[in-house]
Amino acid sequence: MSWGFLCDLLSGVNEYSTGIGRIWVTVVFIFRLLLYVAAAKNTWKYKHDEFECNIRQPGCENVCYDHFFPVSHIRFWALQLIVVSTPSLLVVFHVAYRENREKRHKQKLYRGPGETDGGLLCTYLVSLILKTGLEIVFLVLFYKLYNGFHVPRLVKCDIRPCPSTVDCYISKPTEKTIFLYFLAGTSCLCIVLNLSELSYLIFK
Question: In terms of residue numbers, what domain contains 145?
Answer without folding.
Answer: 3-49+71-150+172-203
